[in-house]
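FORM 12-B: Structure-to-Sequence Request
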């Protein structure tokens, strides 16, 4: 089966791999994800505060799962909840379905019922499910009790708070993989002035690289200042 990562609808893919994430801070989550990939777990729920990198993590998971499992579907629910829920039909054929921002469907009966039915079809076919939210399953504001009870069966893991140490380790890992030569002054500037959230922080790194390539400049503090302004 060809490797295939499907995003419904298509959204930007950030160039961050699971291996880029700070190993110590993310150790429990990475361990659970490995169990999900191997089939030891069939259902996983990750949650964290805004900026903790939920969407970033799920994008990295989807990319790796596409390589290891042959196919993965990442559904950004906050973006698609305004569309017909019948797009969920047939997704159970995928080895891993990833649902970002599950709380976004709260109050949308068609979507809550559609996800409940998808869950049951995944169970029947031996599929796996990864869900992200800003809260634990018990606190999800879903109106369909059957959906809440199914999601509550997941193994639950919290993402670490994105402090300076986590962002600096992420920066250094990404810089090494991209062959960047970062001066200590630039590292300090990006940590002090860059976005606190991991998703926005890595977006800045992408923009920094793109601008450096476009303008044929080294990645320096003045360039970083221009990107952040």
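FORM 12-B RESPONSE
SEQUENCE OUT:
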């Amino acid at each position: 089966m060809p490797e295939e990562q499907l995003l419904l609808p298509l959204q930007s893919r950030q160039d961050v791999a699971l291996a880029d994430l700070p190993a110590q801070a993310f150790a429990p989550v990475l361990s659970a994800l490995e169990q999900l990939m191997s089939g030891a777990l069939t259902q996983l729920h990750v949650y964290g505060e805004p900026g903790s990198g939920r969407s970033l993590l799920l994008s990295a998971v989807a990319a790796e799962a596409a390589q290891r499992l042959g196919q993965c579907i990442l559904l950004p629910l906050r973006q698609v909840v305004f569309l017909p829920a019948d797009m969920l039909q047939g997704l159970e054929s995928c080895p891993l379905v990833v649902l970002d921002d599950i709380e976004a469907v709260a109050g949308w009966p068609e979507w809550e019922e559609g996800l409940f039915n998808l869950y049951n079809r995944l169970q029947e076919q031996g599929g796996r499910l990864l869900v992200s939210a800003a809260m634990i399953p018990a606190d999800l504001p879903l109106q369909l009790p059957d959906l809440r009870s199914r999601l509550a069966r997941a193994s639950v893991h919290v993402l670490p708070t994105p402090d300076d140490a986590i962002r600096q380790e992420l920066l250094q890992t990404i810089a090494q993989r991209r062959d960047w030569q970062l001066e200590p002054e630039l590292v300090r500037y990006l940590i002090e002035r860059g976005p606190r959230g991991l998703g926005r922080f890595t977006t800045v790194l992408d923009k920094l690289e793109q601008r450096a390539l476009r303008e044929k400049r080294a990645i320096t503090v003045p360039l970083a200042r221009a990107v952040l302004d």
